[in-house]
């Protein structure tokens, strides 16, 4: 009797699990493309904010290549976008990671000119504290725009730090870890992209779509 | 008073999930830094609550009481995951600003509380209405608290409403006053606790005044909290 009811309950639970899982899978299949598209659009919107139309005559999204370099903040291959005008390199953009945010990794998009001048930085994804660290989000504050037109003199350029550490970037009231993480990630990646700009524009790197599969 | 009026009164006031049952405080305190976020999470919770109440009510005949809790949890988790995927697909920017709190709707005890206390014992129409009333009650408290904190902390109302409601809502934004340094206390979790305390105190005060007025009528009431 007990065994029977246990069996029956087990089967019922299993049936519920199967129904619940298939519902979730169904919705996921339905929304998958849309979500993918939203993320692409977000990156593209951000790219277009950073690299104005005057600076490229190629399709930025098609120019996406995968670059594997620890200076981008992660061991995973990251998307790299290359812009040309009439075949002359004009801008490089890369998705980079600040692994040492206050609550986990901060994903950023960085664009520079081949000579190393920063075109701009935007935050793509983060989990920083709402109201404090989330000021790195351009929706919340203009802070992230302060990277535009900045240049870096080298590894030991002390201006690339928050003001509290003697640098040229504002910190936020109540949150220093977040801007520190962003600044050091941008500094690291900018140096690398700047040094390698010539190589990167000509390198034969794997396409983004192929690399992900 | 018929059952539906009774359910409305219970959900919005007498047995409000946030003010009386004090359930779902984690998301409530965490996302109410602005009206937009509060409204977004309130609507998501409302949808999950109605969906889970209907489902739980429909399957209540087949589910033996020994396994009802795991079944409820699966039902709720399914709805939350579906909502999360839909929000990710259709209100991407709001999804990003609510972030971790969407999956956390699963842990909102108000939802499993209503499944257990009401939906598992009543026909689906009533269960759906109960979910609606409780969900609206919860969302209203979220919005009030969100408005308080946004005004005090940032001097604005409906900041970022376009993320939830589309481009036209950008004009909803009201700037009451400009602040150079936001009042952090209001935006940080302690501000949420203090604000919540004031709202509960206000509700209790109103209830006290009303019962004092009606003191001649002796009414005995049993309040059931889930």
UniProtKB/TrEMBL annotation, chain A:
Annotated compartments: Cell inner membrane
Alphabetized UniProt keyword annotations: Cell inner membrane, Cell membrane, Electron transport, Flavoprotein, FMN, Membrane, Phosphoprotein, Translocase, Transmembrane, Transmembrane helix, Transport
Ranges where the FMN-binding domain occurs: 101-193
UniProt-listed GO biological process terms: electron transport chain
Annotated coiled-coil segments of the chain: none
Gene Ontology MF term list: electron transfer activity; FMN binding
Principal place of residence: membrane
UniProt topology in membrane: Single-pass membrane protein
One GO cellular component term: plasma membrane
Enzyme class: translocase
EC number, UniProt record: 7.-.-.-
Cofactor: FMN
Top-rank lineage group of the source organism: Bacteria
Spans through the membrane: none
Modified-residue entries (FMN phosphoryl threonine), positions: 176
Function: Part of a membrane-bound complex that couples electron transfer with translocation of ions across the membrane.
Subunit and interaction comment: The complex is composed of six subunits: RnfA, RnfB, RnfC, RnfD, RnfE and RnfG.
Family to which this protein belongs: Belongs to the RnfG family.
NCBIfam families: PRK01908.1, rnfG
Name of the protein in its database record: Ion-translocating oxidoreductase complex subunit G
From TrEMBL, chain B:
Subunit structure: The complex is composed of six subunits: RnfA, RnfB, RnfC, RnfD, RnfE and RnfG.
Family matches, as InterPro entries: NqrDE/RnfAE, RnfE
UniProt keyword list: Cell inner membrane, Cell membrane, Electron transport, Membrane, Translocase, Transmembrane, Transmembrane helix, Transport
Compartment(s) of residence: Cell inner membrane; Endomembrane system
Matching Pfam families: Rnf-Nqr (PF02508)
Broad class of where this protein is predominantly found: membrane
UniProt key word Zinc: no
EC number: 7.-.-.-
Annotated protein name in UniProt: Ion-translocating oxidoreductase complex subunit E
Gene Ontology CC: endomembrane system; plasma membrane
Topological category with respect to the lipid bilayer: Multi-pass membrane protein
Role according to the record: Part of a membrane-bound complex that couples electron transfer with translocation of ions across the membrane.
Keyword Translocase: yes
Domain of life: Bacteria
Family named by the database record: Belongs to the NqrDE/RnfAE family.
Transmembrane segments: 20-50, 71-92, 98-115, 127-148, 181-202
GO biological processes: electron transport chain
């Amino acid at each position: 009797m007990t065994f029977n009811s246990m069996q029956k309950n087990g089967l019922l639970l299993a049936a519920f699990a199967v129904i619940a899982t298939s519902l979730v899978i169904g919705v996921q299949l339905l929304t998958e493309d849309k979500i993918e598209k939203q993320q692409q659009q977000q990156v593209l919107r951000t790219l277009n904010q950073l690299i104005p139309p005057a600076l490229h005559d190629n399709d930025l999204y098609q120019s996406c290549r995968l670059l594997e370099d620890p200076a981008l903040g992660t061991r995973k291959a990251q998307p790299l976008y290359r812009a040309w005008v009439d075949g002359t390199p004009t801008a490089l953009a890369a998705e980079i990671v600040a692994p040492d945010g206050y609550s986990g990794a901060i994903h950023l998009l960085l664009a520079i000119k081949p000579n190393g001048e920063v075109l701009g930085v935007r935050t793509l994804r983060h989990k920083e504290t709402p109201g404090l660290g989330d000021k790195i989000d351009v929706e919340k504050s203009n802070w992230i725009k302060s990277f535009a037109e900045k240049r870096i003199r080298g590894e030991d350029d002390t201006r690339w730090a928050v003001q509290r550490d003697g640098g040229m970037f504002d910190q936020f009231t109540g949150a220093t870890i977040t801007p520190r993480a962003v600044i050091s990630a941008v500094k690291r990646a900018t140096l690398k992209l700047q040094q390698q700009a010539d190589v990167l524009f000509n390198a034969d790197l794997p396409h983004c779509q192929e690399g992900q599969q | 008073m018929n059952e539906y009026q009774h359910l409305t009164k219970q959900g919005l006031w007498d047995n409000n999930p946030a003010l009386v049952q004090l359930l779902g405080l984690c998301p409530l305190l965490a996302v109410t830094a602005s009206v937009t976020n509060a409204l977004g999470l309130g609507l998501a919770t409302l949808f999950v609550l109605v969906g889970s109440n209907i489902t739980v009510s429909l399957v209540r005949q087949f589910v033996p009481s020994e396994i009802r809790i795991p079944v409820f949890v699966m039902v709720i988790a399914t709805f939350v995951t579906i909502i999360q995927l839909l929000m990710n697909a259709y209100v991407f920017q709001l999804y990003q600003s609510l972030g971790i709190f969407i999956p956390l709707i699963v842990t909102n005890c108000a939802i499993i509380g209503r499944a257990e206390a009401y939906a598992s014992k009543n026909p689906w129409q009533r269960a759906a209405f109960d979910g609606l009333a409780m969900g609206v009650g919860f969302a209203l408290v979220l919005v009030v608290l969100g408005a308080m904190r946004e005004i005090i902390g940032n001097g604005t109302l409906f900041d970022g409403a376009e993320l939830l409601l589309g481009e036209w809502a950008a004009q909803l934004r009201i700037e009451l006053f400009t602040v150079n340094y936001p009042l952090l206390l209001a935006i940080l979790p302690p501000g949420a606790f203090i604000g919540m305390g004031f709202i509960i105190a206000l509700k209790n005060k109103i209830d006290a005044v009303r019962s004092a007025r009606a003191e001649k009528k002796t009414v005995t009431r049993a309040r059931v909290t889930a």
